[in-house]
Amino acid sequence: MSPRSNLKKPLLYLLIGSVLLSALLGIVLVLRGNWGWLEVRVILTTVIFAVASVCGLACDLSRTPSGLNLMPKSGLVLTAVTTALMLFGIWFEVGSEAYWKMTTVLISIGIATIHVSLLSIAKLASRFRWVYFLGTQIIFGLALLIATVIVFEINSELLWRFLAAHSIVVAAISIVIPILHRISKTDANRGDLLMPVEARNVESIDQQIAQLEERLAQLRTLRAQLVGGTLS
Hints:
Blueprint: H1 8-32, H2 37-62, H3 70-91, H4 97-119, H5 129-152, H6 157-184, H7 196-231
Helix pairs in contact: 1-2, 2-3, 2-4, 3-4, 4-5, 5-6
């Protein structure tokens, strides 16, 4: 993923178009008073595209100007794959239980990946970074637990209670990490605490400065050549 991503505008247009189309179709169907499976599939398609575009924008927002960006890239891939699987299943009326189980498992892991990517936007001081690492394990642990319940169709009251408690912990971490980010901003050394958007802006400014300096060097060389030729 390049520092200057080409995905942001298409995803924004897709989100806006999906929301507008969904609203328009909803109005038309309400006025007609005729709901069939075809109309439901069309509405579901627009909703799926809208959610997919939001997920893609979240991944784009969390990318950094340097590094592998494994989480954002994985989130984008999982978003694309699950979107294709859902659309295929809806329009071709796939009735396979295994197909929908696989799709749901991938959705669960994809949501966890995007969640972790969004939390990575918060830049924490070194004394707080263990919270993000722990939160990553807990979030993916919840996704894998949900996937296990789906695949093996486990129905246990104790397990549902554990899932509820696990979800509360995930929600708490999702609130705590942004707070710790704000606290980290008060540290004296903030050079490594830039958020991804800030880091990309700084990199863009640095590139422009480098280009200007290179142009100035060329102009100085040209001036020296002109002055030297005039004196000779």
